[in-house]
Amino acid sequence: MSRLTQLFAGSRGARSSARTSTRAHTGARTHTGTRTCGERSSAGRRRRTRGAATAAAAGLLALTVGAGTAIAAPAGGKGGSPHPPRHARAATPQVHPGGKGLSTLPAPPAPPRTPPPRRAPRPVPPGRGDAAIAGTATGSSGTPATGSSAAAATAAATTAATPLAAAATTGQGTLILYDTTGTWGWLGEQYAMQAANLASRFGTWQARPVRSYTAGQMAQYAAVIYIGSTYDEQVPTAFLTDVLAGTRPVLWMYDNIWQLTAQAPNFATTYGWNWSGFDTTSIGAVRYKGTDLTRLATNAAGIMNYGTVDPAKATVVAEAVRANGTRFPWALRSNNLTYIGEIPFAYADMTDRYLAFADILFDALAPQTATRHRALVRIEDVGPDADPAELRAIADYLSSVNVPFSVAVYPRYVDANGTYNNGVAQDYTLASRPDVVTALRYMTQRGGTLIMHGWTHQFSNVANPYSGASADDFEFFRAHVDAQDNVVYDGPVPGDSQSWAAGRMDGSAAAFTAAGLSVPTVFEFPHYAASAPDYAAAKAKFPRRYDRGLYFRNQLAGGTIDHTKFGGQFFPYPVTDVHGSFIIPENIGNVEPEAFNNHPARLPADLIDAARRNLIVRDGFASMFYHPYLGVDYLRQTVEGVKALGYTFIAASAV
Fold first, then answer.
1. pTM listed for this prediction
2. pLDDT tier, 155 (very low <50, low <70, confident <90, very high otherwise)
């Protein structure tokens, strides 16, 4: 069976391999994880239509889509409604990662049923390693790599490795190496982008195909991450010998570890462990720091198991937990080498073993980091159609418990097809709703900070994917709802470009100004989805984003961006992502009382549970968003529960 049985699985059992297996070939993205601000429930509609349905029409919106563009029909709503209910947060395309409409990455193809090959050591090159190959990418503050000026070959493969704490004595930043060969070689770049995003928390990084590695190259860096995603891809001998020389901390994931152990005949004696083969049984949890983190149990890619582990030489960092309760090492550390027996980015959600990897990075890149746990809350999808009384109630509660907060505002309301106004289109801005503007000022006086959440939070007059109405739909990406009730990501909108996206951001800024409000300095993409040019526009105009992101094929490798292959990601701490933007994290999702689009309901207890598991990240966050139409009670329960875990709520500006 192919390891690519699920291309975009989400959280909490909503991930169905049968539903998503064909997506790998078409490039279409479904998201079945936690919601974003786009997918709607009937509860949301009941709350929001009170004000919107009675608002006077401010003029007919006449927008068209370019010729030849397929227009998705309005998706059917719950309970017999002809349209999907409004304002029930959609799943993230970033973590479908497990949050606002994210698309999770799949695992690589399943390994062969036979154990990996055991080979004799390769001859060590007398000088330079393998020739450099194009495909290097650098973090926003990094320096281009100098692969052609490689140092002399390192010591023999049998050299004993240096303890992790003493290894990174020189060099700066993180070198990220990834596989590229085979039918699913493109996944290597996807995993590398996720590793690079997390590594940016600690400084600069460079990413390149492992086949381009030259001897001595890792000496330029403080640490190395290698992501083995192609089974038995030829890893350069120079890299193997440099890893075994033990001069830098190396974090190795999944495949091709057998090439490293073959290069050192005494590997088990030196490192205290050796592999035996992949365990492909049902494994639904990974235990790290005494906390069980989730794992998609139907992930068929397997986790490396071990023939020998000497506890005097090797430390078991985390354990895989089988369905029958038995355990074996998920991650091991000895000397300079940390080995994780699978790729933790595959099928990740907000309570996933991905969090263990995010924390393990501290050991290699910032081991002296003090433990602290901070929390954020963002009030979501606030537009000219908002209920001022609801906004004031939210502000009063958060102020009363000394919790600073952000408010995600789209300043122009558009119902292009009159979905919520008896067929009569509506288009109006904050300037025409002084009561809402007054309520927003009230919120800022009580600890709130406004952020820009797009301009209209919808696109044109099409269902994208629901109705053409603000806060229902995506603004910077196309999507539709398929016959199985999944939200499918279709790609950039017609006419998309960096200048087009910048124009919408300028339009939003003008609407804030016209309402007498300061233009926000933080941006959040509606439903956490945009194209690569749109992300470039946001980077050029805003010092920070506050969302999750989509990351596209060829962003590291170079060449034309392929918007049909991408993955979404959430972050348990601030990062500077591969788009170049500083990201304020959102990682535990939102309350959604009713299920929809194959997303289960999420109540305060679910968010609190996600926050509890995130405590394993030593300098991590519990960051949530909340829709004001849900009232104060759910918010109170969540805030109190997160506080009880030991988190301290801070303002987004303090991140």
1. 0.84
2. very low
